[in-house]
Amino acid sequence: MPKIIIAIDGYSSCGKSTTAKAVAARMKYGYIDTGAMYRAVSLYFIQNHVSFSNSKEIAAALNDIHITFNFNPKTGRNETCLNGLNVEEEIRKMYISNYVSEVSTLVEVRRAMVAQQQKMGRRRGVVMDGRDIGTKVFPDAEVKVFMSADTGIRAARRQRELLEKGEMVPVEDIKANLEKRDLIDSTRAESPLSQAADAVPLDTTHMTIEEQVEWVVELADRRIAELYREGYFEGKR
Ligand code: DC
Asked: Where is 216: in which H helix or E strand?
């Protein structure tokens, strides 16, 4: 059966990754967490003291950075590896969240990540979540969702996630970080966070993850049926 690309963009901590992962499992598609890629680059930059203002250093670092998603049978999840090392836990910590938006404004970083993401999705059959998937990485994605939610709710959800991992962060700090990241993400010069004209908005403030997953799967099913009727898949495998 021919496969499509499902692009899920939106603000931080709206449940994009959790939803995208579950949608991918339901549809037997691959899942690519593009935020994890920017987080892995941030970790490398911190560890190797890469200067934001030195383009030679940035280029050399990007040459040396290899990001893969490897299946961990213990957790049953694809986990982010940086140069062969599993960094899944490390990149979710607050110090990375405080650093990543700046790193993701760098043109060289964005170009390198977008090129890798386009390669990863070239056979379609993927759910990709991020900020610029429907606008920049796959403007031709067949399904585009744009997620938002109330900031207080997002901060509370994020605090719970961090607590489950043993990191206690005051909710005000998380809220400030989310607001700062939203602002940087939506005002940066290179592929800012914005809703694609053909994206369907989804406000998750009052939704459970299960409801979000159902909503996206139904949207994708309807779109696939429509594409069949239009003959879009003819000649495609
Ligand atoms: O989805 P996340 O919170 O893990 O993403 C981390 C950061 O990476 C986020 O603050 C913005 C950036 N990002 C981006 O600029 N473009 C993407 N496609 C994905 C994430």
From this structure: helix 209-230
